[in-house]
Hints:
CATH topology of the largest domain: TIM Barrel
Number of helices: 26
Keywords: Phosphoprotein
Helix content: 40-55%
Oligomer: single chain
Strand content: 15-25%
Radius of gyration: 30 Å
Number of strands: 26
Domain EAL: 436-694
Domain PAC: 210-262
Shape: globular
Number of domains: 4
Mean pLDDT: 80
Domain Response regulatory: 1-120
Amino acid sequence: MGDGDFRILVTGDPGAWTPPGAGAGVSFVFEWVAGRGRVLAALRRDRYDAVLVDAAGPGSEGLDLARRIRRRYPALPVVMVLGPEAPGPLQEAAEAAGVLECVAAGALDRAFFRRLRGVLAALRAGREGARAMAARCEALARCLPPESWEWDLAAGTFTCSPALGTALGLGRGEAAAGDPEAFFARVHPDDRPRLEARIGMHLEGGNECWECDFRLRQADGAYRWVKGRGAAVRDGAGCPVRLLGGHEDHSTRESAGAEAVRAAFHDPLTDLPNRVLFLDRLGQCLRSAPRRRRRFAVLFLDLDGFKQVNDTFGHPAGDRVLREVGRRLLQCVRPGDTVARLGGDEFTVLVDGIRHIRDATRVAERIQRALEAPFPLGDRRVRVSASIGIAFGGQGAARAEDLIRDADMAMYRAKSLGKSRHEVFDVQLHALAAESERIEAQLRRAVEAGELQVFYQPIVTLRTGRVSGFEALVRWRHPERGLLEPEAFLPAAERAGLMERLDLWVLREASRQVHDWHRRMNGGPRLFLGVNIGGGTLSRPGFGGEVRRVLADTGLEPCRLRLEIADRSLLSDPAALAGALLDLAALDVQVGIDDFGAGDASLSLAALDRLPIHSLKIDPTFIRRVGEGDAGLEIAHAIVTLAHNLDMDVTAEGIESEAQLVHLRTVECDYGQGAVFSMPIEAAAAEGLIADRFRG
């Protein structure tokens, strides 16, 4: 038995029935045990991932056993296997007892075991994350002073230690599981914003721990200076789930006050000026610009390759790189210039007293040379570079925020042109910025005005040539510019924070449409629906509940829905989406990976096997190479083989020629879509295709 296998206890006689999924490459190890006493003894003795209870025997023995297992082992999934004549009341009683699923013995096929594997994989990931989180929480708690607290960020409860509760005059109920406000309301009003900013920056991953001097009101009503420090407990995805803190007496008020002033204007990780101080100094330059002959420039830096450092070596290593970047930046500027960290891997430089834009580009060149040297991380060395945007002061930006925006836009152009370079904001970019803001405003109105429309691209079974499903693709019927493709407005939707709303709108509208086709063509083909979902939407708390409501409201069968996620957003950190995948697996909703092979994360094949993924969609760049030589076909064949070995189906996206179609059939690719079949079409035209298939 391998480390990744799932151990399943099956009750009853081994000769009574054999799960067809056994031995089908689904990573299960089955053990048969007959008799209630022996089953319970086996559960006490060994650890299993799930139990299949045979309810086909006489009376209600199987149901009684399932109830007993659920009471003793509530975290252990139980599946009730029903006989061919199983009455409805037995299934209802089993579901009331909390079994994971009731399934007929004849339905124990590959699809069932693939679904079960998805649920068990997500549960295992959740357990491993919980164990690691508990260990981190215990280690942090041991380092806290007597006056300490713990904030459960998910539950919203705030628990004080007995010493802190006594010092603050909190009642036992308030100290045990109170509202966080019971604590923060006792922080001096002048100090609270600074404390919340320090904690907020830490929760966002800005530094390894939070530290802050502040005044805390005691039980007698007097304020006492304390030095607070603590750290977050994060799950496997790096998201904070608990926050721990403690306080020690810090009676030197003067030093605390000076520290507070500095903390308000400096980044705690690098000790560089923060956004607040940078905006203040930039505002001074803007106000004095009309009476000065000398000009100034803003450089906006975004590090290239920094995310890989964090993902590979962890956030502490990333913090060391950020501190070293700050040190090198200071060596590239004059004493009167300002280097600031805005957050994450973004830095800004204010170069004052220059005559020509060339003076600013020389600073950018010095910075890029300074970053060429590798950054030491213990016995390893990493390299990062910077994409830099430059905006020249006095070119029309009336506010500090506008000048930073202009430099930011120039930085994005530098990054799009190959990274590790600099670009200067110009009139063309200014027009692009204005157009981008206009599109964002129009897009917000378009959602309300019903200007968005779902198009449907057929997905064809390559073996038969018949339409088996559709991918839903959004279009915008712009009142002035006509029908717009997604690339013309989705970037604006992302900048405007509309992607989650857009994803859910497409999901609801397409689910309603496909169910309507099924209803009106009773007895016709049962189609599946593919809907693209962004990684941010999928990992949003409550997304599983949103999908459940959409299915309930539209009537679409869950097994007909396939949510497609780009591989780079899903596989870069599998644990981050384990909870959402568990919710979807429980709903019987499928998840597929879109554009497989397009991102570096595709190389993490071990993670692919652990996630409840049902399908892969080959990136069109690989499909275009099929038919051009042996290499393209070999890549497609390798992806198909990989998917089939993991019990996944494969769709080739972007098939444009009959030659590509023939080659993909030879490697047994399951589905295909592209211009050779049909471009994305409106709902009425798609309905015509379905009707033709129904009549055929």
